Amino acid sequence: MKLKVRLLFVLLLLLVFYNNFIAGGKENKSNPPIYIAFLWHMHQPIYYPYENILATQASNRFPFSVVDIFNQRIGPYTSWPKNAVQKGIDAGFSHFGAQVSFSGSLIENLNNLENGGNQNFSNWKSSWNNIRTKNTSLGNPRLDLVGFGYFHPLMGLIDELEIEKQIGMHRQSITTFFNGSYSKGIFPPENAFSNKMIPALVNKGLEWILVDNVHFERACKNYPFSTSGNLYEPNSADIQNPDPNDWIQLNGLWAPTKVSARWSHQPHFVEFINPETGESSKIIAVPADRYLGNEDGRGGFGALNYENVLSQLESYNTDSNHPILIVLAHDGDNYGGGSESYYNNNFQNFVNWLKSNSTRFVCTTIQDYLEIFPHDANDVIHIEDGSWSGADNGDPEFKKWNGDPSTDGYSPDRNSWGVITATKNFVYTAEQIDNSNSNTINAWKYLLVGESSDYWYWDGSTDGIWDANPTVAANKSIQYSQNVISSGTDLTPPTIYLPQREPYNPGGKEWNTDMSSEFQVWTYVYDINGLKSVKLKFRTSNSDNSDLSKDNFLYADGNSVSLWTSLEMTGKEIQAKTNPLPLFKAKEYSAKVSGIKSKLVDYYVEAIDQNDNVSKSPIMHVWVGEASGNTNPKSLNWLPENPNINDTITITLINAGKTAKLHWGVNYTGNSWKSPNPVYWPAGSVLFNNSGPAVESPFVDSGNQSYSVKLGPFNNAAQKVSSVAFVIHYADNTWDNNNGADYHIVISEATNAEQNNLPEKFQLFQNYPNPFNPSTTIQYSVPSSTEYYSVLQNVSLKVFDILGREVATLVNEQKPAGTYIL
User: Fold this and answer.
1) What pTM was computed for the model?
2) Which of 4, 241, 442, 569 has the fewest CB atoms lying closer than 10 Å?
3) pLDDT per residue over 383-399, tens digit each?
């Protein structure tokens, strides 16, 4: 279409952000400066457990070159981060620096490439060790290699001892290969946090942890919830913090929900209460800004309009003892955040901007900030479980690694947790019998690599190799464990997977839909000598609100809670579908809780083995509302979640209660679709209303109250397909259009775990004609996405006049990769 404008003006357009004309702005003479910190995340997994990267390449285990993935990231893995930090040092900034999370598996891979003669990584640690010798004015590292889990585990779903082992291995690797001491802080893999992690972190000497700040905000009273944030409603059991009364709608970037301007940009203590002893473990939660970090990850200074966006927070920055801290956390080796321009030209522009605004903004290391502004140990808040936005938007159930079953009752994610739960019992028993035995050490090595979150992230892709990796590791771990177990007495209790529930908000709402107040708790439980009982224990608070008291955190009875009620949990075996099959897999146990409304419920799982060894899960909390929604609400999913052109996509509708057709098109732009070429039509497809462009394809009854339709592969030369858009058209002529947003699936060209090439920059081409009156044509392109970012990119194009005044918004929506013309 043509842009019609009656005024003659200079067109200034940028993707994802708008450039501010007036550099610097007005300085605030009374408020403290806003502090800015960076976290650059670097990671590659052990692609096949436990195999040297060169052996994996030689074996052709993947349909792509695993070595090329590293060769495309030479800069981020060698000198670019050091160069960026050096720019701030050269500018004379006393606190300037950055944080980098460098996984142990990445270090191991790079060492293997170096030792194998890959010249790209010859002496790759030299730049890191050079910058590690340089400190801030407070004596802290300019580049802080923060704590991490060696193999990139999802710490919110594993147990305390495993977290400690993962951090211990990482500490050993960092202190062996790099200068300086181990960090006092940690960036948890996927920025995924649960307060159940706190004891392990404290036990390993860590003092602070980065947490996505949306989970601060969702735990506040009067949180301005909106489904536009792509998360369902928080459970009231998590809403424990007062209203900060500083909600603001940010402009100039993709920020679909209001944010807490000050409170969610200040560190606070969080704690875990030991349910047996009542002992408190505390750690400082440092907020990582969800929306600003996401924008910075698209290219750094310029992709994020620092001046325009951060200035919106200045009037709220009134606490001189705890000024606003903006932590920009994102991948440092992918997408715009892994590009040469991010670390070089754009970062130099950031440094220049700081020079011009030194009283308003200060770049700092997190450790310096915490020492300059120490925190009151009594400032303890609650944080909802969850991860950063790049992984299914970081929901509190960690669904990216905990996916629901498909129509046949099978979930690759859950299968792997069943296998890991069984394996842990073997390894824990070997640890109890002889923890120094070489077999026990190897058993741990394979168990820990089997917990690599990548293996869950890429479920349903690459012929199932990712889904099978936990089983490959588990089988080796069990074999080593059995060599030890045979020589000792089993005193180890059963292992229990962290209990999950469905629905998440019983008696409340999910996506504005009422849920049943009845809820089911499920888990995996295993013991090498068999189980005597598995029970669900639950109780209610005596009050009629969702506020938690200390009694809620303890197994012991208390005045503010009822006595525990016990329910026997039913176990069922679910056959694995991996190659190889697991040697052992735990049963899935479940029980339903009903008859409760408008009450806070505590619950946990207790398991007893045949030797009377007893284990208990952590205590969980849920507010059960008074709604009486469908016990089996409609569910829509597709696999694989991130398909490429060679995949067949299965779209499944569960508990619909009626037949339906898939109303779909391809290569969408906004709400406009193109007709798919007939070579892609499933059997029975027709053009909608005989004219299209949408095609309607019938869902096929799959049994168990579910219906499915298959699309693709989209690799025919007749039409290139980069995306699918669809809605559901039911037989009774009702529609599900995702609340007006439609459903979207982006089809990738790439087949490897991460994009084969570092993405190109966002490109905005010169408009033509220029000058113009009254119309012009604008072309822009959006690069492909990567592992930790949404497959749809948030694109905003705005028009400013010569004085910097905004006069028009041309685009403000999510777009797939491609080239567009306005």
Assistant:
1) 0.79
2) 4
3) 999 999 877 789 999 99
